[in-house]
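Here is one chain, start to finish.
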Amino acid sequence: MDKVSDHPAESGVTTTAVAPQAAGSFRELGLSAVTLAAVDRAGYTTPTPVQAGLIPRALTGIDVLGQARTGTGKTASFVLPILERVLQPGREGGPRALVLVPTRELAVQVKDEFEKLAQGSKVHCVAVYGGKPIKGQIDKLAKHPAVVVGTPGRVLDHMSRGTLSFSALDIVTLDEADRMLDIGFRPDIEKILRRCPDSRQTLLLSATVPPPVQKLATRYMRDPEILDFSTNELAVETIEQRYFTVDPTRKFDLLERLLDRENPRQVIVFCRTKRGTDKIHDKLARRRSRSSGEVACIHGDLAQSVRDRVMRQFRDGSTRILVATDVVGRGIDVSSVSHIVNYDIPEFCDDYVHRVGRTGRMGREGIAFTFVTPEEGPQLTRIEMRIERLLQRDELEGFEAFDRRPKPAPVEQLPTGGFERAAAAATEAPEVAEATDAPKRPAGLLGKRGPKRHRRAL
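Its structure:
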């Protein structure tokens, strides 16, 4: 049954503005001793503003919409309340909690966070997503995990097979809701939510809250309280942002010189297409072969086992340079990323925000570079308007950003009408024909064309 609010969007949503502030300790948030012990083992000392604001509200059982970027500790902000909920007695017959995420990589990341924070308890978490054999996931679901994390498509697949039941659900979380809607998951999400118990608690986390997210919250959440942890600037202040103007033919040379100058601890190079990602990775790998595995790439066409291996190596630091597309960029949460390079300027402003957010994690400093060709100036301006901040222009000493070799003058296309018009143009204004490289015709042949035919051509 649909969970439709009886109130219109304006009156059915309680808005609470929460300014990022220094928080106290996790012991002040109302967590149990078991959970606090797991938090200590995980090395978490002071809650981030998102955690300090969202955890106590979620523990009360109300529906919460939290607006916060990735890199602010938001994963733990919903994992800890879920753990507290499933540690309490509840219904049987299926998982007690469901987390929906947009990408496979993010599903793995959230599952890892659950396993880290569930130490000392008997809470078991299973991740389900495409690209992996479904049989292995069916076997894991048959062991009755308390928490399921998955992408909407694969969750819907298990629902249709009868291997996943939501009759015992207490809490549902939509992580990065804006991204899930951007990539077309709305129909799947709605089908899943309609199958969930009306009595469930719903948590929705999103970096932005555009109208589609607002509509989803109004329809499937019960008087949600909105906690806004976003700052006035979409890009965090700890991230330095610069741009280079460069000719398209010089972009790869610029990338190599930039990597040499910056010597990043870890860097993600974002490309617009899968083919471009492969191309840049192959060229970098050939030229930087002095360290095996230093360069890797990740995009949607790679086998899931390959993507898992790449992410594992990037997280443990053995891979220093990762070339990626936007689709998987959202699932990359590695605190040691020091640099971002937008090799291709993103098509959408929000994609720029999310790319840049891969560095400067958890308050650390980071730097982002964007390559801008002469034709892409308007796109740069739109990004600057979106983040309300001007990017600083950068240059590499001694590097020629533009190809200075003279280019051949373009050959003007002949006008429609064939040989007569070309001949007429040459006869009427030979100096123009020379300037535009119009084809020259033999004088004798031109002479055979009478004035009458010339006038007709005009």
